[in-house]
Amino acid sequence: MAVNFGSKRIVVGAHYGLRDWLAQRVTAVLMALFTLVLLAQVILFQGPIGYDKWAGIFSAQWMKALTFSVIVALLYHAWVGIRDIWMDYIKPVSVRLSLQVFSIVWLVSCAGWAIQVLWRL
Questions:
Q1: Which domains does the chain have, with CATH numbers?
Q2: Which of 2, 8, 40, 69 is deepest in the core (most CB within 10 A)?
Q3: Cα 56 off chain centre by
């Protein structure tokens, strides 16, 4: 009787491989670069930074576009991490699905709030 090892492979959990690993790294690098750009602008200002100077940093269209892309990157970065946690540690499908839906709603709400704050400046 021949034994066929590995013929019934079960794939479960949040093991999406290279795509998600790379997405986490790329979004982290983008967020780190944004932080450096923001710190450079804050350091270049002389004196205390009040609302006017802070609003001035984000008034340029290129900074708004960069901030928007970082917000999107942050949301995707958070989604990949949260989804992996839910898939790895929450076994009942109904609870996991509920947590994933709640997470999506929460992240989209945070994005809306962040964009509203950004374009209000």
A1: 18-120 (1.20.1300.10)
A2: 69
A3: 25
